[in-house]
């Protein structure tokens, strides 16, 4: 199973300057629960935005830099190569960034999308548009704004039709 997992604003905003424009602790907990003990595939910038490697996950980093290495992760040079490295009984999660998400839309089985109920005008990275002709929404769970979450958001699960 190949799953894209992301959080995006109402206009598909993912981030600005290689950082998230929001802090949603419950979304982080969900991300950890879903991705732990599995492969996580990401681009180099996403990898470098992490404070450290995430525990209990196999990191696969896609980069064009042939000298990039010894970073606590498997380093590959394309999404197909990353998916080859991830063959096993573990699931595969594509965790970013925008260009990797765009490539993964053609091969993913599922999208776990946290839709943040806000717009972020300064964003410089975006989640790709995807067609409901190809994807079916099978689950939605709303999370209201509260003392720990400045924005309301909805967990959406999409599967390929």
From TrEMBL:
EC number, as in UniProt: 1.5.1.3
CDD domains assigned to the protein according to its UniProt record, in alphabetical order: DHFR (cd00209)
Signal peptide: none
Catalytic activity field: (6S)-5,6,7,8-tetrahydrofolate + NADP(+) = 7,8-dihydrofolate + NADPH + H(+)
GO CC annotation: cytosol
GO biological process, one term: tetrahydrofolate biosynthetic process
Annotated metabolic or biological route of this protein: Cofactor biosynthesis; tetrahydrofolate biosynthesis; 5,6,7,8-tetrahydrofolate from 7,8-dihydrofolate: step 1/1
Keyword Transmembrane found: no
Keyword Transmembrane: no
Enzyme class: oxidoreductase
Keywords attached to this entry: NADP, One-carbon metabolism, Oxidoreductase
Residues covered by the DHFR domain: 1-160
Matches recorded under InterPro entries: DHFR (IPR012259), DHFR-like_dom_sf (IPR024072), DHFR_dom (IPR001796)
One MF term in the entry's GO annotations: dihydrofolate reductase activity
PANTHER family, sorted: DIHYDROFOLATE REDUCTASE
Role this protein plays: Key enzyme in folate metabolism. Catalyzes an essential reaction for de novo glycine and purine synthesis, and for DNA precursor synthesis.
UniProt similarity note: Belongs to the dihydrofolate reductase family.
Protein name: Dihydrofolate reductase
Protein species of origin: Aequorivita ciconiae
